[in-house]
Amino acid sequence: MPQLSQLAEVFPSQLLWLAIGLGFIFFVIARGMVPKIQATVDAREQRISGDLEAAQQARAAADETEAAWRARMDSARADAARIAQEAKAESSRETEARVKEAADKINLKVESAEGQIRDAIAAARAEIESVAAEATQEMVRTLAGIAVDKKDATSAVKAELNV
Question: pTM above 0.90?
Answer without folding.
Answer: no
